[in-house]
Amino acid sequence: MKALIFVSLLVSCVVPAQFHPRQPAQYRPLPPLRMRASIQNKWTTERIAKIPKLLKKHGAGAWLICQREHAEDTIWWSIKNATDFDAHRRTVLLFHTNDSSLANTPNPLKWVDNIGQVWPELRRVLGEYRPFRIVLNTDEDIAFAGGLHVGELAILQRELGKYWTNRFVNEPMLAVEFVATKLPSQLEYYRIMQENVWAMLEEGFSDKVIEPGVTTTEDLSWWFREKMQLLNVSTWNQPRVSVLVEDSYPGWEGTEDVIKEGDILHIDFGITAMGLNTDTQHMAYVLRTSGAEPETDVPDSLKEGLRKANRLQEIVLGNMRPGLSGNTVLHQSLVQMIREGMKGQIYSHPIGDWGHDAGSVIGFLNLPAYVPVLGELPILPNTYYSIELYAYHFVPERNETIRFRLEENVAWSELSQKWEYVYGRQEIFHLVDGRKRSSLELIEQTTRP
Ligand SMILES: *[C@@H]1O[C@H](CO)[C@@H](O)[C@H](O)[C@H]1NC(C)=O
Ligand SMILES: *[C@@H]1O[C@H](CO)[C@@H](O)[C@H](O)[C@H]1NC(C)=O
Ligand SMILES: *[C@@H]1O[C@H](CO)[C@@H](O)[C@H](O)[C@H]1NC(C)=O
Ligand SMILES: *[C@@H]1O[C@H](CO)[C@@H](O)[C@H](O)[C@H]1NC(C)=O
After folding, report:
1. How, if at all, do strands 280-286 and 344-346 pair?
2. DSSP string covering 148-193
3. Whose C-alpha lies nearest to ligand 3, atom 7?
4. Is the pTM of this model over 0.85?
5. Looking at the keywords, is Signal present (predicted)?
């Protein structure tokens, strides 16, 4: 009993820092496509310029990427120009460490070929540079370092022969570090994207879009898709809207329910633009307003549940020091969570070039305590993470234990040497108030001629 009181005091005494934006989010247009392309190309040039140094760091002399149109290497998507939509024919890229400005050689060297001309030239260039270790993307577990197709490996072995083939190595952290590392100038646009995400959440989870008793979770999911079209962004997964009840888990599909008063709503969705991706989960509450005593706020028990999930976010971010493995961060965070008397699960991941980006993961939904390979990688700085987790909280009004599921994107700040929320984090429920809707309809009716 004593322990219980202590625990509940501990939880309610922790006043979370205020990261919920005080002003409503605004829709902020991204630049026109032509300008986006020129901004993205500058980023790509700057990121690619880091590769020779990365090669040296990993003790390699070259990085050979070989692919065909429609069978691109995963890494291609982080290297290509903004106006390229695939690799043409066979596209061979050779990154090297020869930055001799006298030689004025491009880096990467690039061949687009479908008659086999590339091979003698590649052999000649390798003969000049004599790289001792040549990285190929052949990793078995890490997608970003494993994008070489089997046919490309076969042809490389045949055309380059034993001499060069013996120098092929798998060096997965080369690709991981290249993809994971973001530029300071990307953050400004990432923040605009995140504000748009919040503006969509605030509009979508409101009486403007939801009519309790009529709107379904599926309707809401498609509303988000259509809204993205209007905002000139796309997505990397179907928005999943669910009504949260005990023991419903994280269905990948969301639920197909009519949204009713008293429902706890949840969404998991992200947007894609300018080579960047977001991933956010928020919760909303549909006020009970049709009874004799209409609700004006979310019940305290739900606020408490959200606070627990917020506390879990702080625990993860506090433990997430660059250099530690994802598994170490996971273990330390789970221990701290248990010590603070909470139950929940952590499954956070890198984000950026991809919704699930290169780098160490901190838990997986099906691997709650330890993740082989991906969890053993080090947490890198200068990257973005999606802090994805849930805290359990018992809701007495429902006699149910609900998973309070949140996901928020953070960026490493060189200045503060900490992870900072890109736009903010949810600390207050989005509220759907059916009464506002009827008064809106009333005003519309009475102002009509
Ligand atoms: C989307 O693109 C169209 C066509 O260029 C433009 O008219 C519109 O203003 C854009 N909308 C936003 C929100 O950026
Ligand atoms: C991107 O465009 C530049 C300029 O046209 C070109 O030199 C470079 O090879 C292109 N990069 C890739 C990966 O195709
Ligand atoms: C760099 O490339 C130039 C031109 O191909 C060559 O002359 C030089 O020897 C190379 N240097 C190294 C260190 O590979
Ligand atoms: C609450 O739920 C538990 C388990 O589902 C059940 O045994 C109990 O009777 C319920 N309590 C009330 C007040 O409904």
Report:
1. unpaired
2. --HHHHHHHHHHHHHHHHTTEE--HHHHHHHHH---HHHHHHHHHH
3. 103
4. yes
5. yes
d(CA 353, CA 364): 20
Amino acid at 41: N
Place 105 in a pLDDT band, splitting at 50, 70 and 90: confident
Cβ proximity of 164 and 92 under 8 Å: no
Tens of pLDDT, residues 336-381? 999 999 999 999 999 999 999 999 999 999 999 999 999 999 999 9
**Any bridge partners for residue 364, and if so which?**
367
Which atom of ligand 1 is least distant from the CA of 30?
Answer: 14
Selection from 341, 306, 303 nearest residue 10 by Cα: 341
Average of pLDDT values for 392-402?
96
Does the pLDDT value for residue 48 go beyond 60?
Answer: yes
Asked if pLDDT for residue 12 goes beyond 70, the answer is: no
Q: Is the CB of 110 under 6 A from ligand 2?
A: yes
Question: What pLDDT is attached to residue 13?
Answer: 45
Q: Does residue 337 contact residue 312 with C-beta atoms inside 8 Å?
A: yes
Q: What are the tokens at 4?
A: 């219980």
- Does residue 444 have a pLDDT over 80? no
Residues contacting ligand 1 via CB (< 6 Å): 29, 231-232
Angle in degrees, 0-180, between the axes of helices 326-339 and 300-319, rounded to the nearest 10:
140
Taking the CA atoms of residue 312, residue 315, residue 318 and residue 320 in that order, the dihedral angle to the nearest 10 degrees is -80
